[in-house]
Structure formats: structure tokens, C-alpha cells
Amino acid sequence: MPAGAVRVALDTWVVPRWHSGPGGQFLLRSSLVLTGAEPVLVDAPAEERPDAAWSVVDPGDVRWIVIGDGGPDHAGGLAAVLPACPLARVVAAPAVAARLLADLPELGGRLRAVGDGQPLPVRGRALVPLLPAGGALGLADPQAGLLWAGEAFAAPVPGQVLDPDELPDQDWPGAFRAYAAASPWPCAQARPDDLLARWPGHDRPRLVVSAHGPLLHGARLAEAVSTLAAPTPALRAAGAAAPGPG
Length: 246
What we know:
By secondary structure, this protein is of the alpha/beta class.
């Protein structure tokens, strides 16, 4: 179920979509909108109409569409978004770009493949794509202290909330471990510390936004990083041993 856009930083909006999951949990499928001189849409999940994103930016003003992964939860709505954003260039990692072009030949000259750490020439923002080993494309906004983590830091949520501090009694480490244990997608099991190691500059991000998890900042971010630093087999074992949701 779509929700309205949520402002999380200056000129930065998250568009969350909650989907019912097992055990009364909700699974998030979020995208990101960066407004400013050259608006940026990060991910285009499959949905009927992206009205929530267009509530904060005119689609005709969008200049960049960043696609983190070729799956429907990241690119399933791209075919519908492209005609609404005629001035936008589409950015993706090389392998994903090739897949998108095969599926959408009309992308043509609008598609740009980017490598890890290759800055995007977005006027007014210093955006840096991050491509961890085996992971989906992330996006760093060092000026805002914000990291779009893509598939990393994914976890089910027990209610339609974005900020984990709204549910202080929730076992968030257990939720992260359970998702890592259950997800069949390799990019969802990519180690977040690999993504964070690619963050430009000395300071770590102040806010992490995941396509499939809650907002993370402060102690919650440190807790998530510590939880997910374990190798994938250990995460799978811990998640499998944890009680199921609900």
C-alpha cells in the first residue's frame, strides 16, 4: 500500500510502500526523491501510479533516475516512469544497465552505466554511486550525510513505521538476521560494511535509507552495522534459530 512522501533531510524524501508479509509483518519497498536544481528519482518500483513521488516533484523536472537493481522492486515501474520524465537520464551499474536496455530498447541514449565511486554530474549535489561486491547499487550524498543503501539493511517491520525509534521494544537485530536468513537474493545478503567502506570521506553517513528496511541513524545504525557484520552463513544460522515473526 503506497503512502505519502516523507521528508527525511533537506530536499530529500522517502516514498515508502508497505506490503503485508508473513506473521503480521510488513515489507517495505521504498524509493527516494531528491529535489533541487536537478531532481533525482532513486528506484522505480512496480506500482500503478507514482503519485506520491510526483507530490514533491514535477516529473517533467526530473533529470536523473538511478536504478539500484534490475528486479521489479527497483525497476518494475521504469517503463511507466520514463514517458513522464522525458528529460531524465537513467543511471545503473553496467550489468543492470545491459539488462534494462534489453528489456526497454527505448532507453537508447538516455541510459548511462556507472562504476563504483564514479560521481554523477548532478548540478547542486555531489552524488556518488557505490557498488559493493555482490550488492545492489547504493548512492552516497556526502553533503547531506545520507546513504541510499538499496538492498542492504533490509528488515521486516511490525507496523507501518519508518523510524525504528517509534518501536523501541522491537528486536531489530533479530529482524535484520531473519531477513538475511530468509532472503533468496544474493544482493540482499551483501555485507553492509562493504557498502559503508566505500562511503566517500572520513565521516560515516548520519542517515541510511534502505529500499526494504527502516531508516537508520545514531545508535540504531551502529547496532545494525554490528549485527550485519557477521558472515552470511552465521547470519543465516542465527536467523533460522530465531523465533518467527509475530
